[in-house]
Each structure stands twice: as C-alpha cells, then as structure tokens.
Records
---
Amino acid sequence: MSNNQEAAEAETRAPRSARTPVEYPVGRASEFPPGAHKIVQVGTQEVGVFNVNGDFHALINVCPHQYGPVCAGPVGGEMSCNAKTDWKFHWSRDGEILICPWHGLEFDLITGHCLAPKEMRLRKCKVKVVDGEVRVSLGSG
Ligand code: FES
C-alpha cells in the first residue's frame, strides 16, 4: 500500500470532529526543480504541484470556467504595457502564470486568481516540504 493510500484511509477512518488535515506525500522535492510541475493524485482529487522559483504551490486540477484540467496547461508570464513600463511592452512574472489548456484563461499560480475575470479563482491546497518530501493536504493553502 502506498503512503498516499495509507493517508487516504487514515483520513476516512477518523471521525469528522477529530479530523486534522491529512498530508499526502507526493514525491521528493528533487523531482520538482524550479519551473517544474506535476499532476498528482491526492485522495480523491487531482492536484497540480508547481515549483515557482523555489516555492511550492498546489492547486486542484479543475478550472472554474468549464471544469477543464487547468494544471495540464503551460506556464508562462505576463505581458504588460502601461505607465509603469513607460508604455513599452514588458514581459514579467515568467513561470508564475498558468494557462488553462481548454480556453486559455490565465491564472496566477501564487494566489490562484484569474488575471481576468478577477473573481474567478483556482482552489489552492496546503503544500510543504518535510525532510525532502513534498506533502500536500486538501483544504485551502
Ligand atoms: S475550462 Fe479553463 S478556460 Fe475554459
């Protein structure tokens, strides 16, 4: 039985009132170098785990637009042209913007918010590294 299955069973056995968030091991941190991401199974959910410049972020793999597999999309940056950039095109935030593969909505990997419309948001999970192991728990992160 895998560590992930054991964690899922422990979560199911505990009475609801006694439940604390269960941490699911999803791999070694070395498997997620900066800029890399993987979709992993966490209990009953698919979760995208992203290493953004050395910080880990985990998001449920469901797009709030039409439920597409958002974490399977490419990661890029943001083009801006405004007063801050002296009205010149400027590429920024490379590696921080996730693009849904179905219709192209862009999401901030750090906050989960859609770049437009802003009220749309991905669900984040808690993620941490313990002794070199990446652990994800369902619940807001
Ligand atoms: S399902 Fe993600 S943009 Fe439409």
---
Amino acid sequence: MAHQYRTLSWHRLLNRHKQEFLAWMDENGTRLKMFNKLAEDLEQYVIHCLTIGPFYEGRLSLIRLRPTYFCEQFANCIPDVFTNCDDPHMYEQYMAAQAYAHVHLLERYRRFWDVLICLLEAAVLPMSEKNLQVLDVGTGPAPALYAVSDFYQALHDFAHEQGYISLITSTPKLDGIELSYNMRHFMHIFSEMSYRTNGPYRVTFGQFEGLSFGKLRSDKRRALISREADEQDTSEEYAKEYVDFMHSFDHLYRHHLIIFSNFLTKGDVVANWQKELRSTFGTLCHGGIVVVVGGSGEKYDPIYQAVRDIAKNIGLSEIPEVSTKIPCNYSDISAQRIKEHYNTIWAWIRANTDIDEAFLTSRKIAKKLWNPQKRLKEASSPPEFTLLTFRRSGRPWKWKPASEGRLAKKD
Ligand SMILES: C[S@@+](CC[C@H](N)C(=O)[O-])C[C@H]1O[C@@H](n2cnc3c(N)ncnc32)[C@H](O)[C@@H]1O
C-alpha cells in the first residue's frame, strides 16, 4: 500500500528521517523497553527450563526429574559456551542452547542494535515496501533476528506515529540457517513464549556446508519440468520450453539483509566455505546488505580478509561510511541489565538446588555470572567488536556470478 506514495530513494528517505527517528527512540526509551522485555522473557524461559527441562521431561517422565538435575546440566555447559563456541558439536549437549542464550543472547542482541543503527546512520539500512527478506546464517538463539524484528518494529511505529507514509514498511521476514536442533527448538519455544507473532519460528536450512542457492533453483526448475511433462503428457523438451516461458526462478532465495553474527570464526572453515559464501552473497537483492559481525584482534584479520576477497570477487562493495570497529560497553544501562539477568538466574539456581559456591568453583563457572560483586568486564573482555558491511549496489545487470549457472544470471 505504502509504495505508491514513495517518490524518493530509500537512501534519501533514510537520510531525511534518521536523526529524527533516533531522537524519537531516545525520547520514548524504545530501545531500552525492548531490551528489558527481552531480558524478562529470557529470565522467565530459562527458569522454566531449569524447573521442568528444555523438552518438558520433568513434566512427562515417570520419575520426576528435579531442578538440581537440570541446573547441573545447565552449569556443565557454561564453560564451553565461553570457550568452545566454534565447535558445532558443543551445541548437541543437553541444555547447551539455554546456557548459550543465558550468557550471550542479551549482549549479542544489543550489539546487533548497534549494527542496525550504524546502517541507518549511513542511510544504507535495507528497506523494502513489500517483502524485506532477512537471512541469518548460524542463527543460534537468534539474537540478531530478534534485534532486526524489534528495530524495524520501532521504525514502523515511528513512521506511523509521525505520518511518514513512505517509511511505513512491511514486517521483515526472518529466516535462518542453523544446524543445532537444540538451538532451533530454543528459538521456536522462546518466540512462542514471548508472544513474538513475527517469530522467528523456524529456519529454512539446517546445514550451511554444501548449500548452493543456484542448485536449489535449478532443482526446483527440474522438478517443475518433470511435473509438467507428466501432467501434460508431453516430452521433456516441450515441458522445458513451457516451464522456462511460464516461470521465473531467479526471484527465489533473494535477501535484502544477510547476517553472519559470530559465525565466521575459524580461518580453515571459512577457506572451505568459499563456494557457500559466494552462493549466499549472490542471493543479495539490489541494494541489499551483508553484515559480518565478530570478534576483533589479529586472530580474526585473515578471516575477514578472506571474506572481503570473496565479497569483492562477487561484485559487492564494502561501505566506507560504516565503521568496522564498534565499542563494547560494560557499564551502561543495558550492561547493568545484563548483570541483573545473571544475578537473577544464579540466585534462583542457588535458592532452588543444592548447588553452592564449591560446586560452581569446581566447575569453573565464570564468577561474573553468579557472584553479584563481580563486574561484567573482565581482563579478557574485548574493547570492541568487528563489523564488516558489504552492499550490492548499482548496475544489477553487470553482476554475473560464474558459479551460479544460467538461472542466476539476471536479477
Ligand atoms: C557462535 S554461535 C552464533 C550464534 C548467533 N549468531 C550469535 O551471534 O550469538 C554459532 C552457531 O552456528 C551454528 N552452526 C555451526 N556450524 C554450522 C553449520 N555448518 N551450518 C549451520 N549452522 C551452524 C551453531 O549451531 C551455532 O548455533
């Protein structure tokens, strides 16, 4: 409905309204309210899982499992959640998704708000009147997707309230690629429990490795040819001509915003994923953005260089206006809320189980989680995180990825 009123490019529109939108959010405390709601929902959900188990075992099993059992399993996963996030097998542990979300969800969510604000300030925030397609690779408990959902909701509310009709856009379609069943289950139930009607509720793909969007498109085309040949009782040659005349497959699997948040963390793995990265970057719509968010420091430099090379090779350009280093804050009001979240969960655990300080120390559970006196910032806490931003801009007709075959040539 809104698009009939838009006479300006998104870039101009965002430039025109961005400061006012940011001021409106400050005035209304929008960001903080959304952050607090997420923190409250997370507390409720984690405590629910610690009480009856993540898969409702406590309620269903004949011998009722007790919170001590669930809390011990939860605590056992905590050290790995800090030091072993790169290992996909880690997420197979019972309660790993809950432990990961408890430690990282709020921080990653608020970092992704910072990312979206950077995109807004550079006036390159992905926009679409009808169908904003978002893909989060290595979704985990979906901190980035929850941030996207809330941020665009705020933008929508602002545009509506101020009567900026062209800025009133549709709700983003949130999609992901996530290998771990525990993570997918967490995301589904958590979205449900926190009444997030826009989800995310599911991911389209489990495995990133081997994923080729070009192949998916040609598989769809082949399946349709076979169906038409059968239904029309005709030759495959004729069915091919018919399908190519009647259908387009190029529009399948297109994204306005593609996210890699703490996913591209190992050099050898990224080197092996060249084809997958090219294919995924290739699904970007005209004007779309790829963001890569992750750690900072020398260890990551070769990884980011490899990602830059792939992006350049496929015709994406890095956006110079968007800073590549974003400071981490350990003392602002959101940081205090994260600390409060840790206090709430561990106070509950200690009040409802036999778990004591000796247990926590013996299991090497980070003190900043369970000791209210300990500050969030530790000696090893990073001062900043990295943000790479690539855009597919200008001349879509010039873009022809070699690896995607004939079906993906055009926009
Ligand atoms: C470090 S977590 C990042 C989660 C989230 N994006 C964040 O920023 O907190 C990495 C996630 O990627 C998932 N993952 C690892 N290898 C994968 C693969 N080959 N395909 C899909 N997901 C994968 C893991 O299960 C895990 O949930």
